Amino acid sequence: MTPEKQKQQTGFTPLEAFAKSPASAKSGLLQTGFTLIELIVVIGILGVLATALTINFAATRGPRNLKIAENQLVTNIRKIQSYTASSRNIPGGGPAKYYVLKFSLTTPGRYYISGVDSSNNIYDPIETVQLPSGITIKSQNLTYPLLMYAADGTAINSGNINCAQVAFTTPYGKTYMDPSCAFLDVNKFNDPVYLYNVINRSLVISLQDMATQTSKTITIKGSSGSVFSD
């Protein structure tokens, strides 16, 4: 119906009829969205939820990264033991004579894998392993992040160790541990007296999440070659 015909029948055009309609009827047509107050409330609720999720994620990220670092280190130690037992070739070199792990408090966010081949060529490092974010082997809350023990259980250097190397050799899977990172020296690893003095030791490596101050320890037993974590 055209506006003219409607006006002839009712006396009002559609716009005039709307203007004269009750306020409640008009408000039902006009209020089709959110009011400003409703929008503010919704935004506030979303902000609270986002904050709660962020806090929860931050609280769980550190322990999760610590567990990842622990599993990664244990896996790498066992991988190197397997490489040594099979005399796997050093990448870029010949058959392995030693595979060596190095932990240093001067580079607490990473550790190193090195090797010596059967011709006494040294490959240092073969691989650098970066610890997950926020995880370190150096912390003011850990008195001795690196602890090394002799075969009789005596602490080496009274526990004051800043750098430690663990060397696995073929073909018998013997384990040597040096508390001063001096192993990768041809005059050292070919010296029977030196090797006798550093065999069958144990090393405890402490990893810590700096945000939550929680820690994990990984122990390598030189006498048996076993690896375990707390």
Please indicate the percent range of residues in DSSP E strands (runs of 2 or more). 25-35%
Which CATH-level-2 architecture?
3-Layer(bab) Sandwich
Question: What class, by secondary structure content?
Answer: alpha+beta
The residue-averaged pLDDT reads 83
CATH superfamily: minor pseudopilin epsh domain
> How many domain units?
1
CATH class placement:
Alpha Beta
**CA radius of gyration:** 35 Å
Shape: elongated
List the strand order in the largest sheet.
3-2-1-6-7
**Spans with pLDDT under 50 lasting ≥5 residues?**
24-30
Per CATH, what is the topology? minor pseudopilin epsh fold
Q: Between the first and last Cα atoms, what is the distance in angstroms?
A: 85 Å
Helix count?
Answer: 6
Order of helices and strands: HHHHEEEEEEEHHEEE
- The helicity comes to 25-40%
**DSSP, total strands:** 10
Short description:
The chain is of the alpha+beta class and 230 residues long.
Structural account:
- The chain is an alpha+beta fold and 230 residues long.
- It has a single domain (66-229), classed as minor pseudopilin epsh fold (3-Layer(bab) Sandwich), CATH 3.55.40.
- It has six helices and ten strands.
- It has helices at residues 3-10, 14-19, 23-30, 36-85, 186-189, 192-198; strands spanning 96-104, 110-117, 122-130, 135-136, 146-149, 163-169, 175-178, 202-209, 215-221, 227-229.
- The strands form two sheets. The protein has a five-stranded antiparallel β-sheet. Strands 4, 5, 8, 9 and 10 form a five-stranded antiparallel β-sheet that branches.
- A hairpin with a 4-residue loop joins strand 2 and strand 3.
- Residues 24-30 have low confidence and may be disordered.
